[in-house]
Design goal:
Elements lengths: L1 H20 L13 E7 L6 E8 L2 E3 L14 E2 L4 E3 L2 E8 L5 E10 L2 E7 L5 E9 L5 H8 L3 E5 L26 H6 L11 H10 L4 E7 L25 H11 L3 E7 L15 H7 L4 H6 L10 E5 L5 E5 H30 L6 E5 L6 H14 L4 E2 L38 E5 L22 H20 L3 E6 L9 H17 L7 E2 L5 E2 L14 E8 L2 E6 L7 E4 L7 E6 L7 E5 L2 E5 L10 E7 L20
Parallel strand pairs: 10-11, 10-18, 11-12, 12-15, 15-16, 17-18
Antiparallel strand pairs: 1-2, 1-9, 2-3, 4-6, 5-6, 6-7, 7-8, 8-9, 13-14, 19-21, 20-21, 21-22, 22-27, 23-26, 24-27, 25-26
Helix pairs in contact: 4-5, 4-11, 8-9, 10-11
Amino acid sequence: MFRTILIIALLVLLTIVVPVCAAPATPIAYDTANAIYTLGVGGGRDFQRLRIICRSGKFTTGDVPGVQDSYGVPLDVRDLTLADAAISGSVTVLRTDGATLKLDATVKDGQVTGSAVNGKGTKLVLTGRLSFPIATQENITWFETARLGIGMHWSISSVKGGGPSWPMQGSGGKPGMPKEVYEGQMQQFKGQNFNPEAWAKLFKDAGAQYFIPYVKHHDGFAMWDTQTHDYKVTKTPCGRDVIGELFSASRKEGLKIGVRYSQADWHIMPLDMWPGGAALHARFHGLDFAQLAEHFGKDGAEAAKLTVKDTSGKSVELTKEQLAKLQTYEKVWAEYRPVMMKQYEELLTKYGKIDLIGGDGGYPVSADEQIEMAQKFREWQPDIIFGARVFFNCPVLYDTPVFEWPGERPKPGERVYPIGARVPEVWQSFTNWGNGPRRGDVSKPILDLVTEKDVDTKGPEAVGLLVRCASLSWNLLYDIGPHDTGDLAATNVAHLRGLARYMKVNAESITGTWGGPYQPCWLTTCKAPPRGTEKGFVWGTTRKGNRIFLHVTDWNGSETVALPPLPDRKVTKCTLLATGDAVAFEQNEKGISITVPTVKRQWVDTVIVLTLDGSAEELPILPVPAVEPAKE
């Protein structure tokens, strides 16, 4: 009798405990009117993947004024509609000579199902999903035309030099810096000339709209006063919360604030865990490694390899050594992830409004973990914009593209470069992404030592790059790499002061504008879009309202610039932005000819304002042929 009662009691207890332990996660509340739709249409060779954005119930691919989804597929989604969780209408795939897909699908619990009919009348299966969450258009608008932001790589590595983190890995067959030596640099990190107020003013004068520094690189060193461990800037001789002070000073200057955080952490992780082991770990993350280990050595023989299925169901051979590493990675990740999330929480709850978050060292674990991260970020900062490299397994969560120069190059014989979709952000550093120690007399700040001659010499590099980015609707993320003394590098100071000189006169032709309507004009000798001091860019255009701003940086031996004709628009006035002086121009069915004498040209970039009799923003993108270099 007692045994029977005990069994019944245990069964009752299990019926209470088990459901609690296995309770499903809170379902995601998808907002169909504000989401990213990732769709797959058809199959085999005809398979087409599309990524379309829905903001406030209206579909867009995010381009202004063109159309192109995040996979590089030119699209026109103006006829696509959303009503009562049903998608209908057509998508025109411009890359395939205007082929149109007519969609008919429904949305439920974040999943999209339905069909698509192509131009031949063939009915294709359509599946997809919503990505949660997405920034509203109101929250992302400021970023889309910001045009200039400031990034920063600064860590204890500036004591010895070589950039943050990577000296530990070694290169060219040479061993890396021992971890204890690298981390020991924190005892000599003084930052005695650090002046956040002066830096922030320099950023603002340069025309920057936002500041997004690395708060932690792969080395794991925290440039803020984290409470998770003592490997942080407030435990160095510097003793200051560098990030907190920079955020406060930058906000006072009116800049938006961003956080760039590496999810890799060599202070906690083994050096081979990222990037080397990350891809392997992602394929097996969450599997029962202890159970897998039992299969090695079965039947009295030590097996060299074991065939197992990864998280996607694909069979893969693992060696015993790989399995041992995976077990280590799984254990370290389980210990590190709560630390990482606590650090994210500190950064997104203790430092005021954070407008933008970017990542690096992305650890490609499960999509579910990354969706959970996204939900937490929105909880802590509802208006935050998700930059790239934050969600490596969920790229559709991004609100903005990558923080690097896009790798796409023009095809052979092609000189035009597409005006970017979703505002690519170009990361450009002129000073290595982390300077070494400052030499010589360090008593006087570098800010006081840079001369106007330095600005004359170095400034054009940064100004030219900003103009090229703006003409492509890109944002330039200009990177600074301070010295261990807390000084901005002399090159950074000269560049930023050069930008300030330029923007004092020409800001309205850069900030708040879109590239176009003309594609940039390149020299025929330019095999790829030039970076830094490379030559090849002749002129480009930006636009706002009924005005086109023509940016001429290379007159190519002439006083005249020839523009293709504008469809359904006439130029009513042509002036120099810097002086307001009238500029001579002629227009006919063949195009527009603009002449500016040498004496009236401006430093680096002569900006000519073309006032139209209608909107410049509604004009299509107009191709521009490359020009032959002038003979010297």
